[in-house]
Predict the 3D structure of the following.
Amino acid sequence: MHGGPDADGVPAHDLSTNANACGPYPPALRALQAADARHYPDPAYTALTVQLAAWHGVAPSRIVVAASGSEFIQRISVAVALQARGKSGAAARVWLPAHAYGDYAHAARAAGLERTDVTADAALLWACDPSSPLGQPHAGLAEQVAALQGAQTLVLDQAYEPLRLDGALALDASAQDRVWRLLTPNKALGLTGVRAAYVIAPHDVDAPLLARVRALAPSWPLGAHGVALLESWASVDAHDWLDRCRATLRRWKTCQQAVLQEAGWRVEPSLANFVVAAPVDGTRVAAWPALLAGLRQHGFKLRDCASFGLPGHARLAVVAPAVQDALRSALDVVAAGSTVA
Ligand SMILES: Cc1ncc(COP(=O)(O)O)c(C=O)c1O
């Protein structure tokens, strides 16, 4: 299950993805409009790789470009499954957080990885910080990274790091160097329609695994628009802009939490530009599908959290005050209808 456009088209007010409501980043939009789609990109992405590596202060050999975050989730799952099977013959195991992006489990099933609750038994471990849907730090992240054994791969999904409104990642530089860091800036730049991501491999990466990850990529995973997006992202100007966005989003978030609470919703704590919330009223929870459908009819799409293991809850991106006003009206109208139902 995903947020965003559906069979009814693009929602007038889409709170179901966590795209930065202050976006899109204007220079990235201009770069997309100017992207030269007449030619294939450089299949090795030489200049882009050098730019991303310089931006992060790492060797270019550690950068892996991906068609999207979701594409890399599939690719690393298959790569780890094949590497681990090659060593022992047994199916490798994966460890997932309790509430997480559904693609981790989906990719694990497709790759034949078996779920385990024991981190020490896992060949592949997933962490996301700030997490989705709850926008929380990954519990025990530093300890989990410190305990990693040589044959284990931990992927830290940093999709929402640029949209972290409070606190900081609990990993120092050397701990970050031990994990695969997945960066997918389309949400932060407010351009989720562009599919592009990249990964920073660990400093002492298992060379055969890295080779396998590269070999599993199709030719030209990124198109001209993906290249343009990542080039725009790796710049001081983009990060200054993001700094200003975070200041705005913090203010908007405080107002939005109040709007939801006044409408009778309980709002869970979050560090990011999105919150999980649920109606406090039990009658309304029973009428949950009708309530979401009613909001959709009023132009508001929220992300149902059932597939995250949180039934009766919705995830909402922080939006501008005018949209919050409209949300408040829609919540009142729809809740009145669903209570009667
Ligand atoms: C936590 C998380 N990681 C990764 C992704 C995938 O991002 P994309 O495929 O747009 O790069 C998403 C998308 O919603 C997400 O929520």
